[in-house]
Amino acid sequence: MNLHAEDDVIAPVSSGTPVAALTPAPDADRAVASRTRTFDNARLRKDFAAQDAFLYLDDFLAPEVTAQLVHSARSLLDEVNRNYLPGHKQGGSVSRHTIDRLAPFIAELYRSKELIGWLEQLSGDQLQVSPADDPHAYALYYYTRPGDHIGWHYDTSYYEGRRYTLLLGVIDESSCRLDYELHTRNPEVPDQPGSVQIPPGGLVFFDGDKLRHRITPAGPNEMRVSLTFEYVTDPNMRPWRRFLSNMKDAIAYFGFRQVFRQMASRGKDAA
Ligand SMILES: [Fe+2]
């Protein structure tokens, strides 16, 4: 594979101090409930099923949550790890490990019982947070340079069960679009293409193995940041799949140091 890092594959690991929260920091559960109780949830559940496990809402998050996420995304710009995979991906990311240290509100939102309960209603599945060593559990993705994009792919589950992706719009000063194709895994239904530009506070929720999708390239002087949360129905993973998943994350997303130092420290704890 022709592969090289655009800047550095090994992520800089700073000992930065946590990003000061906007005061007062929102209560994640209360803020989520303030929105989800206003929705026609029976209708959304039907839409999700009819679109083969996919839903887009242009206005999901409470404004105070969006404001907090925008603040965090801008504050974490120095922590971004950039990667370049020719023909597939170019962009930056901040992994959960950095978020845990520097932007704990995002971790709180990820674990919000109100949020998880609402996603369970939509999907009809019991959802669990991803294991502590999965850097995709929650991550920020940055499209800040011309050509930043990610090509067509699925969010493949390396777990025993299903893997759902929740994509939240944070900053969108860009022409980037989420292009997608529904029903590609279902031979009975014709593929149905779609395309959305996700505004701050907007949501996309889907089963990663079912939705074929991409983010189109950013233009000059553009900036887009999205936040993704990953939930699973069974957090177990066979060892060889864990290895594949870690290699993919190290090369394509977060850098070897981010991915493997977590494993190393876990090994030490266990010893
Ligand atoms: Fe994806």
CATH superfamily: q2cbj1_9rhob like domain
Q: Which stretches are low in confidence, meaning pLDDT under 50 for 5 or more residues running?
A: 1-15, 266-271
> Quick one: overall form?
globular
Distinct helical segment count? 8
- Major sheet attributes: 12 strands, antiparallel
* CATH-defined architecture: Sandwich
Helix content: 25-40%
Identify the bound ligands. fe (ii) ion
Overall mean pLDDT stands at 87
Tell me the number of structural domains: 1
Structural class: alpha+beta
Give helix and strand order, one letter per element, not per position: HHEHEEHHHEEEEEEEEEHH
Number of strands: 12
Q: How is the CATH topology named?
A: Jelly Rolls
Protein name: Fe2OG dioxygenase domain-containing protein
Organism: Paraburkholderia tuberum
Pfam family, one: HalD
Domain Fe2OG dioxygenase: 131-233
How is this structure best described in words?
Strands 1, 2, 3, 4, 5, 6, 7, 8, 9, 10, 11 and 12 form a twelve-stranded antiparallel sheet that branches. The chain starts with 27 loop residues before the first helix and ends with a helix. It has a single domain, classed as Sandwich (Jelly Rolls), CATH 2.60.120.620. It has eight helices and twelve strands. The relative contact order is 0.20. α7 (239-254) packs across α8. It is α+β, with helices and mostly antiparallel strands. The chain is globular. Helix content is 32%, strand content 25%. β2 and β3 form a beta hairpin. It has helices spanning 28-36, 41-50, 63-75, 96-102, 104-110, 113-123, 239-254, 256-270, and strands at residues 54-57, 81-85, 89-94, 128-129, 138-143, 149-153, 163-173, 178-182, 192-196, 203-207, 212-215, 223-232. Fe (ii) ion is lined by residues 153, 155, 213. Residues 153, 155, 213 line the site of fe (ii) ion.
